[in-house]
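Notes from the 1:1 (GR / supervisor)

We went over the backlog. Supervisor wanted to see one worked example end to end before approving the batch request, so GR pasted a single chain during the call. The sequence is below; no edits were made to it. Supervisor asked that the structure be written out right there so they could see what the output format looks like.
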Amino acid sequence: MKTELIAVLLCFTAVFAFAGETLNGAGASFPYPVYAGWAYSYEKETGIRVNYQSIGSGGGIRQITAGTVDFGATDDPLSRTELDEAGLLQFPAVTGGITVVVNIDGNRHNRLVLDGETLAAVFLGNVTRWNDPEMAALNPGLKLPDAAITVIRRSDSSGTTAVFTEYLDEVSDEWKRSVGHGKSVNWKTGIGAKGNDGVANLVRQTRNSIGYVEYTYAEQAKLNYVNLINRAGKTVAPSPQSFAAAVASADWHRVPSYAVSLTNSPAQEAWPIAAASFILIRKNEPKVRAAVMRFFRYGFEKGDTAALYLKYVPLPAALKEEILESFDSRNRTD
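Structure output shown during the call:
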């Protein structure tokens, strides 16, 4: 039943005529399942359709900047300068985790352990076989095949990639020197796929492969995941609990517009590749902004159950209240 529900939400992209109000959004594939779930319930309750296109963070930024959608979404938050130049406002809407997924011959029990440096070495093309010494040292007693590693990564401009490469940038000096981080990077190896769903499907179809996707996509595709050694030195599995530990340790006011990073958290139980997804709205369109905020108010106030069901982590209650009050105040003065 759960898989069927997620599959329905992942197919929620159709655009068709509707007599009432319609809001259009586009951007990150990371939060797509939860936004689709909120949109389904919001339309049933209010009659207002919210059409969200999962086209990647880069596409969402381009469309909201061009004025072709009512809101954009990105997992790679914009700086205050970028927001001011584009005439945009930004706030986080939901959090979750990016999972390293594998399809390894003979390994079906989510037992593989990696540290950040070894993961970076795989995506740099320096560790090329599953039974290389670096892999064996981290997984004593685990039989790994003498097989080449096929790297699967995003081909589009992706906030998921921005978060994943930011983590690798923090844990590997070689990655930082030779690749860096961003929505699009100069990959050293691998096969590209579009969207979280594209990466998940290609890993599922490719023997002895490795990739990175948002957790819900890994679950929906029934993929095995990798356990990671976090900054505190603990081996942790991806889960809503380990994502929540990273979220709880975040200082949301450390940088303007809430543009914090949740990667490589120092918290003991934290998953090291946690992320927030952000919404972008144009400053100079108060009526559209108010309509968009009514939808996200609904998600903040009534959407936690759906978010948790889909293995996302809702924002802290105090932060949600602060965001809503900030936009309410702006609406009163416009």
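Supervisor's comment: Residues 300 and 320 are 7 Å apart (CA to CA).
Batch request approved.
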